[in-house]
Amino acid sequence: MISLAALILFSLTSFSNCKEYTFPDNFKFGVATSAYQVEGAWNVGGKGENIWDYMTHTNPSSILDKSNGDIACDSYNKIKEDVQLLKNLGVDFYRFSISWSRILPSGKTEYINPDGIRYYNELIDELLANNIEPLVTMHHFDLPQPLEEEGGFLNLAIADYFEDYADVLYKNFGDRVKEWTTFNEPTPVCFLGYSGEFLAPMITRKDGGYLCGRTLLIAHAKAYHLYNKRYRASQKGRIGIVHNIFWFEPRTNSIKDLQAAEAANEFNFGWFANPIFSKEGDYPQIMKGSIEYASKQEGLPKSRLPELTQEEIELIKGSADFLGINHYTTFYCSPIEEEGIGKGLFYLPDMDANCVMDEKADGSASFWLKVIPSGFRNSLNWIKEQYNNPEEQYNNPEVIILENGISDDGNLLNDCLRVNYNNLYLTEMLKAIHEDGCNVSGYAAWSFMDNFEWTSGYTQKFGLYSVDFDDPARPRTPKMSAFVFKNIIQERKINWTYTPEGFGKCDGPKLKDEL
Ligand code: GBH
């Protein structure tokens, strides 16, 4: 009894003692989407076919509910309506992606599709007319199918086609777009698409991920240098990249688990961040070493991780003005041979880490996504420490959160799960800013609206707005989380007691480690 009372008292006092941090004055808020997930109009106005059009049409069973993005949220036809919703939310910026195939149907500049240019011009102009900054991603999982037929990211030539594509984007939109990101989430693109069956094009080559990674880093760097050479002086924008950062914790305090977690952080995040943001450039040492070792064991003549030449290392190093990150969740790692734990979701022989979810943590509609807010702060601190080079260009690099959010099955407008997740994660981010000195300048919630969730189809909903996919008009309805996000932007702090009119009160967070 006494302990229970003490526990309640303790939680109450610790809750009310919690410092109320505000968002810095120049901190920017946004929401995010990506082209294939929301646009629809897959073959309208001269758009070409991309790898998701191709895969969903030729192999419908690759998608959980056999659906596709043919119509999705029909955002292609809803510029005005969607921008009004954004304006209503009060966001400073909108993160969206441009469909490469809508601009260049064959993937190459031999033909520039006028309707593609028109569509994005209208979207950008409408955003600016409503005081919302466009933050544009050039590639969000949707490579043109004709380029895939030339080997996709396994073919280094794709880096040149990407540079040509970036040139078209800068030329047509760079007068108004000032924040660019080249690629969304290289690690999933490469690991899950070229060494796994989780994203298109579902190629399962053991060296596929690493080959893809090299092409992608070089493509990114070429697009960055092109901007410097031809556009920066006149357009005065910035070029970044978006990395996925899951957080990997050691499962116990043992040295072995600590090493496994560190390896997982380097394999997932360092793989693409180290070459760009570290002082030395190149892949993380631990990655090079362990892949070389594993390759030797397999009797291969050389490492499955293709070496970057000194010239490539220099080309890639420093090739970003800011670091975009997507953060969702945390895993717990041990070495692979550890007894007693099943094969985790993040299990890679090369890195010798087996990373599992905390099954006791609050979950979501996505089996890979649990509510573990502390991992957000840990990720931001890891970035700060890892890429802190006082004498270099990157001293505590500027980070913009470009995705963070949670899924449910979409039936609830009273989405307390999302409200609590956002409040908890934003609180950790505020601690990282105010207590740890992490350099975070903006935050975009994933997602603006429910959309096509890749191989999960329409079974997982991440939106602040719900979309009725059974209605041809695809009406959007704000969930409680939309109102709460709007209130956060207005009040510039987390207000745990705010309940928007017409919604039921949320119980508030029930975090396992606080109980
Ligand atoms: C982000 O990736 C994407 O950028 C965004 O487009 C997406 O909508 C959002 O997450 C929510 O998922 O079911 O085993 O195939 C986050 C990293 C990579 C996590 C793909 C889920 C698929 C796991 N994601 N992964 S599986």
TrEMBL record:
Pfam families recorded: Glyco_hydro_1
Gene Ontology molecular function: beta-glucosidase activity
Record's keyword terms, sorted: Glycoprotein, Glycosidase, Hydrolase, Signal
Active site as annotated: 403
E.C. numbers: 3.2.1.21
InterPro entries given in the database record: GH, GH_1_N_CS, Glyco_hydro_1, Glyco_hydro_1_AS
Residues in the signal sequence: 1-18
GO annotation terms (biological process): carbohydrate metabolic process
Family in the record: Belongs to the glycosyl hydrolase 1 family.
PANTHER family hit by this protein: GLYCOSYL HYDROLASE, LP05116P
Subunit note: Homodimer.
Protein name (record): beta-glucosidase
